[in-house]
Structure formats: structure tokens, C-alpha cells
Design goal:
By secondary structure, this protein is an alpha/beta fold. The protein contains 11 helices and 7 strands. The protein has helices at residues 4-19, 23-28, 67-70, 88-97, 110-123, 160-170, 190-193, 196-200, 209-218, 236-239, 245-253; strands at 78-82, 102-107, 128-132, 145-151, 171-185, 222-231, 257-266. It has a 7-stranded mixed β-sheet. The radius of gyration is 18 Å and the shape is globular. The termini are far apart.
């Protein structure tokens, strides 16, 4: 579970399966997002259905927040969505940017990219595109985005420091991100940490909240603010697949908390140039 390539394969395989099914199928199927023997992603998800731009074909119920609500997107903005899945947040962002804006979704799972592109084609959008790539090596030029969003994805990235460095790189100076993600307070039991399903389910890949926020600051972001926070309650019927009765009791009585947070950070206006030799100045 410590090998980055193994972790990425776990995520690709699981989310490749999810991409091939509808939200309803994922909720009902043992091999879907919320089926038996795996994590119920619905315990994380917020309701998108009332948002302008919502498209049910793009909603696989995989988020843990509503970053577009906090991202201060404006008409004409270029928005980049990291871990864009079937395009859910991209289409909501496009409703705000309008035809004069640009929305670019990045995802490493081929099946998700195919599904997102098909959704965009059905909607007839010519200013929403999807690129296959990893968040640790975003396939975009530097200083490209006005706003970066992401929804419950960075916890799946093995090298989170590199992910935030890449986020900083692709943002224009004086612009910002709004990211929803899962973080921890306290230590998870070993049975959860070592479970592949709990990694793909956005739990065991999460890091401590303080460490998460510190990584953002260390990568140069200013005005780092937690815009929203909610507790994630993992039901006993899921925990019992990884912990015995005593382990569940100890976990419930511990100070460990699993949280969804939406975080804002701004690239300084003074960051008008990359490192020497980076080719982006």
C-alpha cells in the first residue's frame, strides 16, 4: 500500500469500474461505488441537483463538497478541475463562466475521460475540454488558470506536495483555488489504513488536517482559508469489513475524526515568474 504506482493502479481500476455505470447502478451494485464490500461514497457526497449546470449523467456521487460554490468563479474565467471524473463540477463551472470562459478537466482514468467527453458532446459545449493526465504532472502550461477546483481527489494522490506545487504552477498570479477534500484529525486504525478499498474510498489516503493546510502554505499559497468543514461518519456496516467489534469500539471512542473540508488558497500577485529554467517566464 506504500508504493505510489500500486496506489494509482488501485484508484484507476476502481474509478474505471465506476465510470462504466450510472449513479443509480453504482448505488445498487456490489461492484459499484456503494456496493457490498467497499466504501459507500454517498456518505461523502453533497447534493448538486439544485445547482445551475447540473447534469445527472455526469454525477456519479463521488464528491465530498461543492467547491464551485466557494470558488468565486466569474464569467470569462478559465477554470481547471483536477480529477474531473465524468464532468460534474466542470459543467457546473461552465454555467458560471459562460460561453466566454473556458473549463478544462484533468483526470488520469481513461474511462472517466471518455465519459466526460461524451457528456460534453451531448451538451454541445465547445469551451469544455477534458485531458488525461495526473495531478502530480498536470498537462497544462504554467500560469494558465484563473481558478482551480477539485472535489475529493487530492486525498487519492500519493505525492500531495507535488500536487499542490503543480496547482501553484498552473494558476495565474493573484488567482486562486477552491478544493474540497478529506482530511483527518487523529490516527486511523491499521485495519483502515492498510485496506485498498479504504484508499480508493478516500479515507486511508487522507492526511492530517494541519499537515494538509501546511503543505498548501509551503507551496507558496497565501490567504489559506477553510471555507467549509463537515464531519464524515463511516457506518459500522462498512467499518466491520476492516475492524473487529473491539476495533470499532476503540475507533468510536478515540479522538480520531474524518472531515470533508473546502479550502481556499491564493497564488501571490508577486509570483509572476517560475523558477529559473522552468520555461514559463
Amino acid at each position: 500500500m506504500n508504493n505510489p504506482d500500486e496506489l494509482k493502479k488501485i484508484v484507476k481500476d476502481k474509478y474505471g469500474e465506476i465510470a462504466l455505470q450510472s449513479k443509480e447502478q453504482n448505488e445498487a451494485s456490489c461492484c459499484g461505488a456503494t456496493g457490498c464490500g467497499t466504501v459507500d461514497y454517498a456518505i461523502f457526497a453533497d447534493n448538486y441537483t439544485t445547482l445551475e449546470g447540473y447534469n445527472p449523467d455526469a454525477d456519479l456521487g463521488l464528491g465530498c463538497g461543492l467547491p464551485t460554490e466557494f470558488a468565486q468563479i466569474k464569467p470569462g474565467d478559465t477554470v481547471v478541475d483536477l480529477g474531473s471524473g465524468a464532468g460534474n463540477d466542470c459543467f457546473v463551472a461552465r454555467a458560471i463562466t459562460g460561453e466566454s470562459g473556458k473549463v478544462i478537466g484533468i483526470d488520469m482514468t481513461e474511462a472517466m475521460i471518455a465519459k466526460a467527453r461524451a457528456n460534453a458532446d451531448k451538451l454541445g459545449f465547445n469551451n469544455v475540454e477534458f485531458r488525461q493526465g495526473e495531478i502530480e504532472d498536470i498537462p497544462l502550461a504554467s500560469n494558465r488558470a484563473d481558478v482551480v477546483i477539485s472535489n475529493c481527489v487530492l486525498n487519492l494522490v500519493p505525492d500531495k506536495r507535488k500536487a499542490f506545487a503543480e496547482t501553484f504552477r498552473v494558476l495565474k498570479p493573484d488567482w486562486h483555488f477552491s478544493i474540497s477534500d478529506v482530511v483527518l484529525i487523529g490516527e486511523l486504525p491499521a485495519g483502515l489504513v492498510n485496506a485498498a478499498e479504504m484508499y480508493a474510498g478516500c479515507v486511508s489516503g487522507a492526511i492530517q488536517k494541519d499537515e494538509y493546510l501546511q503543505l498548501i502554505r509551503e507551496n507558496g499559497f497565501e490567504n489559506v482559508t477553510v471555507q467549509k468543514e463537515k464531519v464524515i461518519q463511516v457506518p459500522d456496516e462498512i467499518l466491520q469489513d476492516y475492524l473487529d467489534t473491539e476495533g470499532i469500539r476503540q475507533f468510536r471512542e478515540s479522538n480520531t475524526g474524518i472531515f470533508s473540508i473546502t479550502v481556499y488558497g491564493q497564488k501571490p500577485a508577486s509570483a509572476s515568474c517560475c523558477e529559473p529554467g522552468a520555461g514559463c517566464c
